[in-house]
């Protein structure tokens, strides 16, 4: 109730459908763990935020790339390659490498190594299939 008034003071407004109040903090995480429930996750700037434990056993907020955006980026990469079948391979490869490198640079944060590794592996498979689409030597 207070936050919309405070934001309105500066000419900003809060979108009710996109906003939610969720329990957060290590105390809420411990309570949820004791009752065998999970704290809700939320999406922010391309990441899914969730509560997890560190190696020392402390609760903290962790991040992973959003599944829908991850799949959409791979699909976009695949579509781009198949639309440019007749374009010079070096030019296409340079463009694709820039796209992949940009995604990796943005998403390479703590707790997200597994998803970044999956992205690299899937991207390499897509590029491999594109290069070898005519069969023959591999």
List its traits.
3-stranded antiparallel beta sheet, alpha+beta, 138 residues, 12% strand, 2 domains, 5 helices, single chain
- H/I helix tally: 5
Helix coverage percent: 40-55%
Spatially, the strands of the biggest sheet line up as 1-2-3
Cα radius of gyration in angstroms: 21 Å
**Could you give the order of the helices and strands?**
HHEEEHHH
Tell me the strand percentage band. Answer: 5-15%
Whole-number tally of structural domains: 2
The helix-and-strand class reads: alpha+beta
Spatial separation of the terminal alpha carbons: 63 Å
Gross morphology: elongated
| Low-confidence runs | none
> Using DSSP, what is the number of strands?
3
- Note the main sheet: 3 strands, antiparallel
Mean pLDDT over all positions: 88
Structure explained in plain terms:
This is Domain X domain-containing protein. InterPro entries: Domain_X (IPR024937). About 50% of the residues lie in helices and about 10% in strands. The protein has helices at about 1-10, 25-35, 65-85, 90-105, 115-130; strands spanning about 40-45, 45-55, 60-65. The chain has a three-stranded antiparallel sheet. The chain is α+β, with helices and mostly antiparallel strands and about 140 residues long. It has two domains: about 1-65, no CATH class; about 65-130, no CATH class.
């Amino acid at each position: 109730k207070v936050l919309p008034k405070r934001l309105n003071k500066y000419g900003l407004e809060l979108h009710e459908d996109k906003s939610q109040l969720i329990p957060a903090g290590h105390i809420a995480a411990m309570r949820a763990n004791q009752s065998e429930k999970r704290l809700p996750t939320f999406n922010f700037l391309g990441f899914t935020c969730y509560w997890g434990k560190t190696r020392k056993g402390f609760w903290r907020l962790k991040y992973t790339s959003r599944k829908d955006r991850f799949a959409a980026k791979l699909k976009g990469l695949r579509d781009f390659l198949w639309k440019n079948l007749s374009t010079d391979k070096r030019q296409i490869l340079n463009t694709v490498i820039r796209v992949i490198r940009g995604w990796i640079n943005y998403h390479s944060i703590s707790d997200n190594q597994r998803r970044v590794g999956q992205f690299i592996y899937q991207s390499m498979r897509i590029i491999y299939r594109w290069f070898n689409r005519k069969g023959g030597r591999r």
